[in-house]
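Quick one, T. Sequence first:
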Amino acid sequence: MPIHLTALTCGHMDNRTYLLTDVQSQKTIIVDPGFDPNHILTAMQGKTPEALLLTHAHFDHMNLIDMLRTLWNVPLWVHIADSDALQDGERNVSRLFLRHDQTYRPAEHTFVQQDTIPLENEWITVIHTPGHTPGSCCFFVETTQGPALLTGDTLLHDSIGRTDFAGGSMTQMMQSVQKLKTLGKQHGDWMLYPGHGNADTFANQLVTNPYLR
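Structure tokens:
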């Protein structure tokens, strides 16, 4: 059965949390649960939490992971190159923004480039896109709304994520953007769902995002 995508705006940083829900079973993977637990819990009514999934390990994308893992007894997935950042306040940028080190329990599962994550009979495809962080990833999924790419802080609306944080690399970021540009042209017009701000079509972003020209 297809996967339905729900986009939630959470927190004061215009963060996006995404729910990927198998239509038949209502089993749901929660992507980047950063803020507003009540908003997420309300959106999850009638759904069965299956796992938590991170596009990257910055505190504003994972602030609720320990609370939700305890509440739901579900595992956390993160790219192996970002797994250590869960216990490192410099790498997860909590030290910079919160002025203290925010740390989290280790992830139950890690993945690498071109892994797939199951959701019932469907699959979420991992695309490793380092640059914002060493383990930044995008997730491709076929949804009821059409093909979707969850881009985290790699591709933003008309921009890209910052590369001046610990572990960031502009060289890697531009390589990752080129990879996404090539994949997008090969596979048709994806809908892009960023970690902050509004969604847009890949075709529109090819025109308006200067980093994709």
